[in-house]
Amino acid sequence: SHQAGLGFATLLPTVGGLWVAAGSASQSVRRLPLGPLLAIPLGAGGLGAGLPLFLGAIMCPLGAALSAAAGAVLLVAYDLAWGDGVVPYLGLALGNLPRTLGPVELLQKGEILVQAYPALTMLAALWAVMAGVISVSEWFGVWGLGLIVAVGGGVVEYALALSFAPAALSQAMTSLSFAAIIYATIKYLESRFGG
Fold it and tell me: How many whole angstroms separate alpha carbon 137 and alpha carbon 124?
């Protein structure tokens, strides 16, 4: 059956509405919904691991960190609900969540998964830290150093703690490397041509 249960039918619009409301409540956080909005399309295009670099470049540190973490959570949730059941960039094959779950059962299942697989929380934390590092480095005008720290830290974290399969590590490294090249190119062109 392709019908969504009450959990998905009520939880996703509620969380989305609250996220958009929070993003429009203040001028400084108006871009908050970008992380969740871009996580799935960028993930589908193989660039999801680079999302924190993009968010860090255009947002304040706290907003970038929150938006990146929310994007990671949404990407995992989407893949477990409608994707192939393998968490992107981690390689954890968790299977698909039943779409007929009610709100309470959905939250309970999510809690069980997070407790059983701490890497899910670590992924959100990594994305938040990477976005925050990029954003702070942008504020201080040392974007190159921020890029090295964020990408270097991301590579180490994916290699040592997050990626459970060689293919997942390769996917994360490719995505992160491509995003870093795009970011560095944009920053170079901006400095060269006075952006």
Answer: 20
pLDDT in tens, 84-141: 899 999 999 999 888 787 778 888 888 999 999 999 999 999 999 999 999 999 999 9
First to last CA, the chain: 51
Torsion (CA) 112, 114, 116, 121 in degrees, nearest 10 = 180
Instruction: Supply the pTM of this predicted model.
Output: 0.83
Cα–Cα distance, 96 to 73 (Å, whole number): 15
Exposed e or buried b per residue across 21-43, where buried means at least 16 C-beta atoms within 10 angstroms of its C-beta: eebeeeeebebbbbbbbbbbebb
In tens, the pLDDT along 126-175 reads 999 999 999 999 999 999 999 999 999 999 999 998 888 999 999 999 99
User: Residue 86 forms beta bridges with which residues?
Assistant: 93
